[in-house]
Amino acid sequence: MKTPEIGVVGAGAWGTALAQMIASDGRDVLIWAHEPALVEEINRSHTNSLYLPSARLAQTIRATSDLGEMAQCAILLLVTPAQFLAETLSRMSAFPRDLVLCAKGIEAKTGRMMHEVASQAAPASQIAVLSGPTFAHEVAAGMPTAITLACGGGEEQWQRLSSALGRPSFRPYYSDDLTGAEIGGAVKNVLAIACGVVDGLGLGQNARAALIARGYAEMQRFGEALGADRQTLSGLCGLGDLVLTCSSTSSRNFSLGEALGKGAKASELMANRHTVAEGAFTAPVLAEMAASRGISMPIVDAVNRLLDGADARDIVTGLLARPLKAEGPSA
Ligand SMILES: NC(=O)C1=CN([C@@H]2O[C@H](COP(=O)(O)OP(=O)(O)OC[C@H]3O[C@@H](n4cnc5c(N)ncnc54)[C@H](O)[C@@H]3O)[C@@H](O)[C@H]2O)C=CC1
Ligand SMILES: O=C(CO)COP(=O)(O)O
C-alpha cells in the first residue's frame, strides 16, 4: 500500500479534523492514533467516537498504530498534546523534511517551546507551526477558517505547505515567526481558563472583556521578552485565537475555568477528563518562566494558583485590589 504524502500524528479532535480537512479534496491521508481501538474504529467505521463524534470521516483517511510508517510521509503534522510530543518523537527513528507543529502548549518539565522539542528530536527537518482560531468540529465540518502557518524554512517551505494544506475554506496566512505563533496559542489557553472562571462566577461581560484585553497585554509582554514579533501576536494565532477561546463553551479550557468558577475542585476536574485542556499544563510552567524573567503576568499567575486549589473568589478579590496603573502592554 502506497504511503500518502501527508500524515497526521495524533487522532484527537484536532488531528482528526485536520485529516478530514486535508482529505476534503479527495487525497489520501494517513493518521496515527495512540489508542489501538481507535485505529480499528477509524478504518472500520470511519468515525472517531472518542474525540470527534460529530464527524463522518472521509474514506481516504487511513489509520495506523505504526509510527515507523508515518516517517515515510513527506509532510507530517504533529498533533499530540504538548506534553506527549517529545515522547512520541523519541519513538520515531526517521523524520520527513517538513514537520508541522499543531499543539498549543509549553513542555511543563523543561519550559521548551514545541519547536525546540521538535528541532532537538529531528534536527534535519524544517519546522513549521500551524496555529489560530480553529475549533476542531468546525474545521471537520468544512466551515470557513483562517490560520497562521509560521514556516521556519521561510518562503520556500511556505510554498510547499500552503499548497498542500490550503483549501477553499481553510486559509493559511504566512509568517516566519515560530516563537510568536507558539506563544499566542500557549498563552491564550491559560487566559481562556480565566475567562471561564469569570463566567462561572457570574461576573459579567465587562469583566470578561477586561480580562481579554489585560490578558492580551500579558501575552505581548511575554512574547516580546522571548523574541516574538508583536505583529504575529496581533494576528490569527494570538488575538484571533484569544477572542475565540475566551468567549465560547466549545473551548475545553474555557469550560474548565467555568467549572472552577462554579466551585468545582481543580484536582477532581483534571482527574475525570479524557480530553486535553492544555492551559492547565501550561499555566504552572508559564507562570514560572515569567517570574524567572521578571515579566508581570498577574492573570496567568492567578490561574496557576486556582489550579493549585486556591479559592476563585479570593483570587478575583486579589486581582481587583491591585494598584491602579497606566494601560499599555509594557506597563
Ligand atoms: N480541539 C481543538 O479544537 C484544537 C486543538 N488544538 C491543540 O491540538 C492538540 C491536541 O488536542 P486535541 O486533538 O483536541 O486532543 P483531544 O483532547 O481531542 O485528544 C487527546 C489526545 O491525546 C492523545 N494521547 C493521550 N495519551 C497519549 C500518549 N501517552 N501519547 C500520545 N498521545 C496521547 C490521544 O490519543 C488524543 O489524540 C492540543 O495541543 C490542542 O491545544 C489546536 C487547535 C484546535
Ligand atoms: O485551540 C482551540 C481553538 O483554536 C481549541 O481550544 P480548547 O483546547 O480550549 O478547546
Tally of structural domains? 2
Bound molecules: 1,4-dihydronicotinamide adenine dinucleotide, 1,3-dihydroxyacetonephosphate
Q: Name the poorly predicted regions.
A: none
Radius of gyration: 19 Å
Number of strands: 8
Element order: H for helix, E for strand: EHEHEHEHEHEHEHEHHHHHHHHH
Major sheet summary line: 8 strands, mixed
Strand order of the largest sheet: 3-2-1-4-5-6-7-8
Distance between the termini: 58 Å
CATH superfamily of the largest domain: NAD(P)-binding Rossmann-like Domain
Mean pLDDT: 97
What's the shape? globular
Output the CATH topology of the largest domain: Rossmann fold
Structure description:
- Sn-glycerol 3-phosphate binds at residues 104, 132, 134, 188, 241, 251-253.
- Catalyzes the reduction of the glycolytic intermediate dihydroxyacetone phosphate (DHAP) to sn-glycerol 3-phosphate (G3P), the key precursor for phospholipid synthesis.
- Belongs to the NAD-dependent glycerol-3-phosphate dehydrogenase family.
- Residues 5-151 form the Glycerol-3-phosphate dehydrogenase NAD-dependent N-terminal domain.
- It catalyses: sn-glycerol 3-phosphate + NAD(+) = dihydroxyacetone phosphate + NADH + H(+); sn-glycerol 3-phosphate + NADP(+) = dihydroxyacetone phosphate + NADPH + H(+).
- It is a single chain.
- This protein has 331 residues and is an alpha/beta fold.
- It has 2 domains: 6-176, Rossmann fold (3-Layer(aba) Sandwich); 180-320, N-(1-d-carboxylethyl)-l-norvaline Dehydrogenase, domain 2 (Orthogonal Bundle).
- It has helices spanning 13-22, 36-45, 67-70, 85-90, 114-121, 136-140, 154-165, 178-200, 205-225, 230-233, 236-245, 252-261, 266-271, 278-293, 298-307, 312-320; strands at 6-9, 29-32, 61-64, 75-78, 98-101, 126-131, 145-151, 170-175.
- An 8-stranded mixed β-sheet has the order 3-2-1-4-5-6-7-8, with helices on both faces.
- Strand 5, helix 5 (114-121) and strand 6 form a beta-alpha-beta unit.
- The radius of gyration is 19 Å and the shape is globular.
- The model has no long low-confidence stretch (mean pLDDT 97).
- The site of 1,3-dihydroxyacetonephosphate has 13 residues, from helix 8, helix 11 and helix 12.
